[in-house]
Each structure stands twice: as C-alpha cells, then as structure tokens.
Amino acid sequence: MSGMRRPVAVIIGMMGAGKTRVGKEVAQMMHLPFADADNEIERDAGMKIPEYFAKYGEPEFRKLESDVVLDMLEDFDGIFSLGGGAPMTPSIRQGLAEYIADGGKVVYLMADPKEAMERANRGGGRPMLDGDANERWKKLYKERDPVFRQVANVHVRTYGQTPQVAARKLMEMIDQRIVHITGATIEPYDVRIGEGVMSQLAQVLGDKPSKVALIHTQPVQRHSDRARTLLRQAGYDVHDIVIPDAEAGKTVEVANGIWQRLGEEGFTRSDAIVGLGGGAATDLAGFVAATWMRGIRYVNCPTSLLAMVDASTGGKTGVNTPQGKNLVGSFYTPAGVLADMGTLASLPNDIFIEGLGEVAKSGFIMDPEILRILETHAGELRSFDGATFLDSGLKDVLAELIEHTVGVKAYHVSADLKEAGLREFLNYGHTLGHAIEKLEHFRWRHGNAVAVGCVYAAELSHLLGYIDQDLVDYHRSLLGSLGLPTSWNNGSWDDVLALMHRDKKARGNKLRFVILESLGHPIHLENPPADAVEEAFRRIQR
Ligand SMILES: NC(=O)c1ccc[n+]([C@@H]2O[C@H](COP(=O)([O-])OP(=O)(O)OC[C@H]3O[C@@H](n4cnc5c(N)ncnc54)[C@H](O)[C@@H]3O)[C@@H](O)[C@H]2O)c1
Ligand SMILES: O=C(O)C(=O)C[C@@H](O)[C@H](O)[C@H](O)COP(=O)(O)O
C-alpha cells in the first residue's frame, strides 16, 4: 500500500455520532479534503441509499459499500468518514487493518449514546433504523460498539462536546504518530507520540483493571496529576506511588516497598500499573509489573526524551544492584506507551540533551535520517527550551526524531525481544557507558555516558580496522555539536575493565562489544585483543 494515496484518517462510529459534521470540521482545520462514504456510494449507484436498499437489499448494498470504501482507502488523501455499519463487513475490516498496519489512523468517534440516538432519528432516511428507531439503534449499538473498539486504533470520546471542540480533539489524535511493535513472541502494542496522547490512557489500559498503581517521581508531579485525573474520570481506583528520583528509584528496596503496598491494597492479576516519568521510573514500574503476581498489565507514560525514544519501549525492565547497572530485571512488554510531548514542556535542557545520546546511537547503528535531522537542527536542539518548544518549529522536528528513534528500537525488539543477538546492537556505546555511570555513582546521566561509550566503540572499531578515522571524528563532532560529552577521565582502567566484564553481553571471562563495520552497520565483537580494548579507552580520556 505504501506510495499510494491514503486517507489521513478514517472516521467510524454509530449513526448520529457526528462523523460527517466533525469530520468536515477537522478537514477544514487541517486544510484537507473531506469525503463521506455514503455520498460516494450514492454517486456510484446513481441513487439515494434508501432507494438502493429498497431496490437491491442490504447484502448488495454492503458489497457496493465495500468496493467504494476499499477504493477510497487506496486513492484518497483527506479525512474519510464511513457509514455506521461499514466496519461490520469483513472485507472492510480487512482493508482497515491493512491501512492501520501501513501507519493509518482509524478513529472511533464515541458520542454519548443518548445524543447520538436522538441525532440519528432526526430527519429519517436511515434504512437501518426502520421500525422502532430507538430500539433498532440500541440493538445496533450493542452489536457494533465492541467491533468498533477493536477495529479502530484511535478512540475519541466526544460526550457533550460541540463539533468544534470534538474536532480539535480529533485533530490532536490524528496528529499523533504511532509506531506499532509486534513480533513472534510479543503481544503487539503501540507507541503513541504527540502532544496530548496521555488522554488515551484509559483506552490503552482497557476495562479489565479496576485498581491502577500510578508510579512516578516527584519532579513530574504536574504530569502525574493529569494522569491521575484522567484515570479517575475513567472510573479506576487510583493508587498514587511516589518513588525516589532517578537511579535512586531503581533499587530492589524501592520495588519491595511497592510490592508491600500492592499487597496491602489488594492488587490482583487483573489490576494494572502505570509508570510515569523518566527512564528510571519506567524501568522500575515495568519491573514491578513484571514481578507482581508474576506479571500484570502496565502502560508507560515517558516524560523525558530518553524515556520516550528508548527506555519506555521494548520491555527491558529492571533495577540496579551495588555491583552494577540493570543487573536484575526481566523482559516484560508494556500494553502500550504514551509519549505525550506536552510533558517535555517541563524538561530541563540538560536532561533533554542527555536523551539525544540515545537518539544519536540509533542513528549510528541504523537510521541515517536520524543523523541528518540531528546535523540539520543541532543548534536548535542544543538550546532546547521546554517553555517555548511546543509553539516552535522544533516540535515537528522532535516528533520526527522520536518516531524514527522508536522505529529503530521497534525493529530490533520485534525481531529479538530477549536479546539473543540482533537486539544487542541497541547496546552500542553501553559497555563503557554503564561502567562510567557506575564509577560516577550515577551522577553522570545515562545518555551522556552512552555518548562517550559510542566514541569508545568507534575508536575500538577503528583500531581493529573496521572503520576509518573520519567516522570516529564524525562521532565526536556530531555528539559535540549537540552538547554531549565525548571524553571521560575520572576512573582507572582496572575499574573500568572489571565493570565491563559484568556487562550483560560478556560471556564467561570474555568481553563482547557492539562496534561498527560501517555507518549504520553494527556487528558483534567477541573477545577482542586486550591492547585494543585498553588503547580505545586511552583515546577517550583525552
Ligand atoms: N529499559 C530500557 O530499554 C532503557 C533504555 C534506555 C535507558 N534506560 C534507563 O533509563 C534511565 C535514564 O532515563 P532518563 O534519562 O529519563 O533519566 P531519569 O529517569 O533519571 O530522569 C532524569 C530526571 O528528569 C526528571 N524528569 C523526567 N521527565 C521530566 C519532565 N517532563 N519534567 C521535569 N523533569 C523530568 C526525572 O524525574 C529525573 O530527575 C537509566 O536508568 C537507564 O538505564 C532504560
Ligand atoms: O533495549 C535495549 O536492548 C537496549 O540495550 C537499549 C539501551 O539503550 C538501554 O540503555 C538498556 O537499558 C540497556 O540495557 P542493558 O541490558 O545493557 O542493561
């Protein structure tokens, strides 16, 4: 389907939900064309729908509807609204599933049933409501609502809202970017990126959990307040759990404190966890979710750039131990990730820049578009200011960067959830990076340590004849232009080497690294010569 024209969004919903009214409004706001499937069908058939129904019956109508909808899915690039019953036809459901798989957005417009029923009855002309219209509408709602929920990848509740307010909400949802994570051993889930996506928290959590533990740190209180309000409005019993900030929260003692609370408050297997904050908070929340009753549902709401592009996705959860970084944990997939870019408005500049370390890493190992964006916008990124970026051109640049970086993560995680080989490439720069973090008592930020670690890995690749000096220099100049460190000189080689032996890629007493064969092409390096490993270290000390 790629390369064809395709709708920016497809709207589905019950008769009377306002699909046409709201759809037209959104199209106007976004300067896009609008099409209504029923109008297209009438044009094709050369008659009104009630007439077509009367003449040929519902099965023939559904066939024609399916042909028209499937054509439009491949040849229309605006906002496309479907008739109420269209998603009940299997061929249309299939078409919508393919459209979603190709990055499309099927929006279920969820209006208040009472309002929608009244609107649907006004004016008549709806063959599906012949007879007792209210009873027919309710029966159809019962059949269709569960299907609509399943078919759509975006749910928008418009209860009591004017078409303009509903349209603005819908536009926000359409503007979001969605990266779909799937794989043979993964329950599929989406990473949603954009301003306001946190409002989909209840949709992603689903209706099974009744209790939700909202795990967060204090500096993101303003965002956890919003999450708590959203969760309470959706009817969950919310338990607020504040953990120590940053790496101090990633300990087994903190996890133990939460296990005790979950026990006291009666959390069962059908309840859930929301992890909200930087990567340390989402790593800890995921670990608690993975271990409580051997695994309960969890959703991540990352609020730092690093957590959005990396930590919140992929299911690596865990805690540090006195011996090193992330030494205890599990691979446990979240039910969804909501990367609400609105939360970045409170992110300090230095923590934003740190996140660029993991972004650049993803560029070095796989995606040249990431490197292009970083090079082009280095100055703006370096002077990131949370207070102003949402109203600046940087917002779209950043959305693009986050989507690409999550795409790199998704590619590796989908193929190799438990890190048997390919996923290790995401660890580029981490062998030394984790050692630096540990030796700096976690006062060095993770992304900064990874940036130095990437330069180290590049030096090692060069020393072993894989890459030329230019590519090593490129690492230094790109990372430096973003405000990231490229050298470290605060620890002994013996300490570094001992910590690198505890890295999870090591096997027995043999070190293993990820290095580059060329830009975008990482390889595994097994048991490299000791002198090269040490010489590369000497080179990052300068
Ligand atoms: N699981 C994974 O795959 C994975 C991947 C990469 C990194 N990580 C882990 O993630 C952690 C690093 O994540 P991080 O860089 O987000 O650090 P962090 O979690 O320590 O957060 C950094 C600081 O920023 C604050 N903060 C976060 N969002 C904020 C916001 N919107 N406004 C104001 N303050 C905010 C935090 O409270 C904290 O003080 C490390 O522990 C690292 O090991 C895990
Ligand atoms: O997702 C992965 O796999 C990664 O390696 C991503 C890394 O960026 C991340 O820092 C991760 O937490 C490192 O994991 P570890 O297994 O080396 O502790």
Automatic annotation (TrEMBL):
Binds 1 divalent metal cation per subunit. Can use either Co(2+) or Zn(2+). One of its GO terms (cellular component) is cytoplasm. Residues 355-506 form the 3-dehydroquinate synthase C-terminal domain. Gene3D superfamilies: 3.40.50.1970, Dehydroquinate synthase-like - alpha domain (1.20.1090.10), P-loop containing nucleotide triphosphate hydrolases (3.40.50.300). GO terms for biological process: amino acid biosynthetic process; aromatic amino acid family biosynthetic process; chorismate biosynthetic process. One of its GO terms (molecular function) is magnesium ion binding. Belongs to the shikimate kinase family. This is Multifunctional fusion protein. The lineage of its organism: Bacteria, Bacillati, Actinomycetota, Actinomycetes, Bifidobacteriales. The gene is aroB.
